[in-house]
Amino acid sequence: ELVRQGEALKRTEQMVDKMDQDLKTSQRHINNIKSVFGGLVNYFKPKTPESKPEQNGTPEYNANNRLKEAMMTSKEQESKYQESHPNLRRLDNSGFDFSRIDSISSVQPDAYPKNQHLRAYHQKIDSNLDEMSSGLSRLKNLALGLQTEIQEQDDMLDRLTKKVETLDINIANTDKRVRQL
């Protein structure tokens, strides 16, 4: 959603820039109409280069790298998470799979109690904590990416607000000049 909003902000900023360019052109034409002398000045005045519209419509908005990386990592981890989550995978009736815990757990076997049931319980807790840690890490990266994207869009909104305010003043002045003609 933030990426979509960023695209909309980028398009809006481009439209405001285009409107500003069109307003400058219209002011030049008003000067031509207003007086012969103004027309001569505008004739010899260097013309401002007009920005050409994009060939493929609007250019693609690029979200910040931090958000892109967090989203890619999250999508990669999502399938692994669904495979290992007890409520998201089909449970096997054969009982608990101890080999799965041994491969997931990063704790050394000497750290567990000697009792087999206690050892399995500790290993299960450790694997659950590893999964929670992985999930929290994923959420943290997404949150940091979202924060960065929000800050960039906030800056874009500030720029856009200033441009729109300036454009509004210029439009009012141009309207006043047209009414004086």
- Number of H/I helices: 5
First and last CA, distance:
47 Å
Shape: rod-shaped
Q: State the low-pLDDT regions, or none.
A: 53-59, 90-107
What order do the SSEs take from the amino end to the carboxyl end, as H and E?
HHHHH
Largest sheet composition: none
Helix content: over 70%
| Portion in beta strands | under 5%
Mean pLDDT: 76
> Helix- and strand-based class?
mainly alpha
Radius of gyration: 31 Å
- Total strand count, please? 0
Main location: membrane
Subcellular location: Cell projection, Cilium membrane; Cytoplasmic vesicle, Autophagosome membrane
Membrane topology: Peripheral membrane protein
GO molecular function, one term: syntaxin binding
What does this structure look like?
The structure is a single chain. The chain has 181 residues and is an all-alpha fold. It has five helices and no strands. Helix 1 (2-34) packs across helix 2 (36-44), helix 1 (2-34) runs parallel beside helix 5 and helix 3 packs antiparallel against helix 5 (116-180). The radius of gyration is 31 Å and the shape is rod-shaped. The chain starts with a helix and ends with a helix. The model is unreliable at 53-59 and 90-107 (pLDDT under 50). One of its GO terms (biological process) is synaptic vesicle fusion to presynaptic active zone membrane. InterPro entries: T_SNARE_dom.
What tags apply to this protein structure?
181 residues; mainly alpha; 74% helix; 5 helices; Synaptosomal-associated protein 29; T_SNARE_dom
